[in-house]
Write a structure and sequence with these properties.
Elements lengths: L26 H16 L6 H14 L2 H60 L1
Helix pairs in contact: 1-2, 1-3
Length: 125
């Protein structure tokens, strides 16, 4: 049996049907996605990603709260969807954990029965 390295959390084995959902993106990243589609139209000669990031960051900082509101609302909507998917994922993992524990218990009972019979066979020789 391998020893676990100190300080590492236990890693659970997940069932194949349990795919962990990805975290939702922030309001700024939602804005940046939209802005990156408009930027080449406004600046056809600039093809640099650095220029795109600088321009989007500057634009975001200059925007008022009212202008940011649609992006923040979209972020909140995505957070709620993420929470629903995480709850479903946690239920799936819990079911997989209980099934794994049950199979581990049945294997250990079988191993104990088998182990006691093997000892008796060694004494007969």
């Amino acid at each position: 049996m391998k020893k676990k390295a100190p300080g590492l959390k236990n890693v659970r084995k997940f069932a194949t049907g349990c795919d962990k959902p990805k975290r939702p993106v922030s309001a700024f990243l939602i804005f940046m996605d939209e802005f990156s589609k408009q930027f080449p139209e406004m600046n056809p000669r600039i093809e640099s990603i650095v220029a795109l990031r600088t321009a989007s960051g500057g634009k975001w900082n200059q925007m008022s709260d009212a202008e940011k509101a649609p992006y923040i609302a979209e972020e909140e909507k995505r957070k709620l969807e993420y929470e629903k998917r995480m709850n479903a994922y946690n239920r799936c993992v819990a079911v997989a954990d209980t099934e794994e524990e049950e199979s581990d218990e049945s294997r250990s009972e079988f191993d104990e029965e088998e182990g006691s019979g093997a000892e008796e066979d060694d004494d007969d020789l």
